[in-house]
Amino acid sequence: MSPHTIRWGIISTGGIATKFSQDILVDPSTREVTDVAHRITAIGSRSVASAQAFIDKLKAGKAPYDWAVGKGLLDDTKAYGSYEEVYNDPNVDAIYIGTPHTRASRGKHVLCEKPFTLDLDELDELIAIAKEKKLFLMEAVWTRFHPIAYAVQDIIHSGKLGKVKRFSSEFSMDFDPDNRPYSHRMIDPALGGGSLLDMGPYPSVWAMLVLHQHPLNKDRKPPKLHFSHQTLYPRSNVDLNSRWLLEWEGVSQAMLMTDMNTHGPRESTVYISCEEGDLALECECGATPSRGFKDVPLKLGIPAPSPSGRCSSRYLASRVTDTGVNVETHLTRTGGPFKPQRFWLIPHPPGSEKSIKEKTEHHYPVSAGGGMAYEADEVARCVRDGKLESERMPWEESRIVQSWFDQVRRAGGGVLADAKGNAVK
Ligand SMILES: NC(=O)C1=CN([C@@H]2O[C@H](COP(=O)(O)OP(=O)(O)OC[C@H]3O[C@@H](n4cnc5c(N)ncnc54)[C@H](OP(=O)(O)O)[C@@H]3O)[C@@H](O)[C@H]2O)C=CC1
Ligand SMILES: O=C1OC[C@@H](O)[C@H](O)[C@H]1O
């Protein structure tokens, strides 16, 4: 049987839209997928030149991103100078939204980058539209679909390590906000700026998968949010950091944290202590230098990469200013739990009554590409099967997480504005 093929329209030509598009051009059989497939039929940008440049960049992709190109699957891809034209293109089945704000789309299935919306009211409006128009809608929380997400759930939910006693999860990374323009999406309240909305979805993924979906939470009761804190960034009053404590009755408490001006732990950003041992999930690193800055080779005296070899915690970036001065800056990049590919099971300290005996390492790599195709496969399957929402990323779970963000922001005072610049309450 031939695979069910989804014809995608991509909204925006930014960083993550590029990664998503590249990933769905990879041969699906490299991730053992034969039942669904993807084509990109339209790109929408605020400028047609940018849309065309995006297509040209995809066409120049190197292995493994050249598979669809080699088959001529980008030959008829349309470049549009507006998002509207993509929504109206009859050759588009589903839209991937890679803008900082959710953009409405008419009559199409939607996969929307996290954070889904600015607040819960906005999310409920989207869900109501999807129900009314019978269209598929999903928040693009790609991590949920990675092999390791299922593996971590299996270990904890099987009870192999006993009950969960303590849970912490975080995403802290130095975005170097002082060196970013106000218009950067992490700074500008009108682009959903701040650490909470951008980074919060990741600690939340793990809390939701491990604790909310824990067999002891039979009725999938949402947790209580006991307290929270935000530190604001004086330049725009978005949150520099957020912390919040949740409790799933009878399952565990969970401490969640985000920071955008400092790094967090370098080796593991999700740590789950259980009765008979702990699970530590590796962190994934990434950060782009401030606009205009370029990575330059590390200099002597800068701390070496982490023992895992994956996280270089400090790096040097430089730029030449308009007046020809070479400015160098040290940036810290430590990541979060967005694409971990291994975890460790760790025994309790000597003398503990019951504990696994030795530390073990467990690998669950994502397939060829960057790891975003799994969520696209889910969309294709759900659309094929006539579903409006995904069981793996259900609306209710997006709603629960969004409601934490609303509560943390309202208590902490972090400022957000909608696309028209009106403050979000
Ligand atoms: N899943 C993941 O791993 C990641 C998800 N994200 C999420 O994706 C979204 C976009 O992030 P990212 O790709 O890094 O952002 P970029 O700034 O790289 O790109 C955003 C794109 O949105 C479009 N856009 C529309 N309106 C505006 C506006 N007012 N200001 C700026 N851009 C606008 C632009 O496309 P155009 O000019 O073509 O119209 C722009 O290129 C965010 O919500 C972020 O949280 C980000 C990184 C990783
Ligand atoms: O989703 C994300 O993951 C990686 C981060 O660099 C980025 O800011 C965030 O949006």
UniProtKB/TrEMBL annotation:
Gene3D superfamilies xrefs: Dihydrodipicolinate Reductase, domain 2, NAD(P)-binding Rossmann-like Domain
Domain GFO/IDH/MocA-like oxidoreductase: start-end pairs: 151-279
InterPro entries linked: Gfo/Idh/MocA-like_OxRdtase_N, Gfo/Idh/MocA_domain, GFO_IDH_MocA-like_dom, NAD(P)-bd_dom_sf
Enzyme Commission number(s) of this protein: 1.1.1.179
Keywords from the UniProt entry: Oxidoreductase
Domain of life where this protein originates: Eukaryota
This protein's record includes keyword Oxidoreductase: yes
Molecular functions per Gene Ontology: D-xylose 1-dehydrogenase (NADP+) activity; nucleotide binding
Catalytic activity: D-xylose + NADP(+) = D-xylono-1,5-lactone + NADPH + H(+)
Limits of the Gfo/Idh/MocA-like oxidoreductase N-terminal domain: 6-138
Top EC class, one word: oxidoreductase
Family named by the database record: Belongs to the Gfo/Idh/MocA family.
Protein name, as recorded: D-xylose 1-dehydrogenase (NADP(+), D-xylono-1,5-lactone-forming)
Species this protein is from: Saitozyma podzolica
